[in-house]
Amino acid sequence: MNENFGEDKGVETNINNNGMDIVTSHLESDGSELEPSTAPKGSLIKILTGVLLLAVLAAGAYFFLGKDTDTNVVETPEKIVRIGLSLDTLKTQRWAVERDIMTAKALEQGAVVTTLVAEGDDAKQISQIENFISQKVDVIIVVPHDTTALNAVLSRAQAAGIKVINYDRLTQGSAPDLYLSFDSVKVGEVGARYVIDAIPDTIAVPDVAYLGGSSNDNNAHLVKSGVMSVLEPLVASGTINLVYNEFTTEWSPDVAYKNLKAFLDNDGHVDAVVTASDALAYGAIQALAEHDLAGKVPVSGQDGELQAMQRMLKGTQTVSAYKPGRLLAEKAVAEALLFASGQPAEVNATTNNGFMDVPSYLIDPIAVTVANIDSTVIADGTYTRSQIYVTE
Q1: Number of C-alpha atoms within 13 angstroms, CB side, residue 141?
Q2: pTM listed for this prediction
Q3: Above 90 in pLDDT, residue 21?
C-alpha cells in the first residue's frame, strides 16, 4: 500500500588533494562503504586528468627552472569545494532523483557532494551533520526531517564557518544562510483550484476533503495556507462544505489511506479530495476505490511523480503541482559554489521562519494534468513517453 521507493543510502564522492586520488562510493548512513557508484565516469576522468596534468607541469617546471627560482610558472590547483547533503529520507522518489542531479552537477563544476540519509531519525540527522562539521565541508544542504530539531547543530556548523542551505524545507527558529524551494503556498493554490474546477456542476454544494502533509514540516503548513486561501472563501459563502481537514503523519500514503478510509467507512461523504502530495493522493485514491469512488472524485497532489502521471491517464488523479527538481537541485549547487567562493547568494524573496526573514529563492510550481503531460514532464526530460504511457 505504501508508495515508497528503494532506500538508496547515499553517494559520497571524495577527491584527495594530497594523493590526487578520486574515490566515489555509495555510503550507508553511518558512512560505511558499499558498492562502487554509478556517478558519471567522464566527469571523474576529466577531473583526474586535469589534476595529474597540473602535477606533471609543476614537476617539469621545478626541474627545468631549478628549485630556487622565484618564477611562478604553475599555480597549484584550487581547493575542491565539498558539499554535504543531509537528507531526511530517500523513501520519496524525488529525493533520490535530486540527489543524483546535485552529485552530477557538482562533478561538472569540479566540486563533490557527500550525501547522508537519516530516514526520519532526528538524532541520526544531527549526528550526520556533526560528521559534516568534523569533515570541514564548505556548505551543508539540508532537507530536515523536523523543522526545529536541527537548530543547534546547524548553528554549530555556521560557527565553524560552514554555510547552511535549507532545501525545500525551512527550519523554524534558526538562521539559515539561504532557503531554496518551490513556492509552497502556490502549490496549495494549484491543487485546490483544479480540484474545485473539476467538480461537476450538477453537485449543488460539494463536500470537500483536505489531506495535509506532516505537521512537523513547515512546507505542510505553507501548502495548507495556499489550499485554504481557495477553500475558506467558498466555505464562508456556502459554496462548498469542508468535511475533512487533517494533517497526515510523516506524509505517509498508508496513513492517508487509513484516515480517509475510516472517514468513508463511518458514513463520510466526499465529492472532491485535495491532498498535499502525490503520495497522499495515492493513499486517498486507494480509499476511494474501496467505496467505488476512484475516478469519480477529483483528486490533487504535488511533486509530479511518475505514478501520478499514470494515474492521470487512468482518470483517478486530476492534477499534480509539478516542481521541476532539476531546476532546484542545480540551483542548490550553484548557490553552494557561490558561498564557497565568498560571494552572496542569489535570492528573489524572503521567507519568515519565526525568527528572521530568511533570504530565499523560490520557484513557481507547474500544474500538470492529463492534457499537458507531453508539454511539461516529458518535454523537460523528467520522464519519457514510454515510462508514462505504459500498458497494463
Answers
A1: 30
A2: 0.71
A3: no
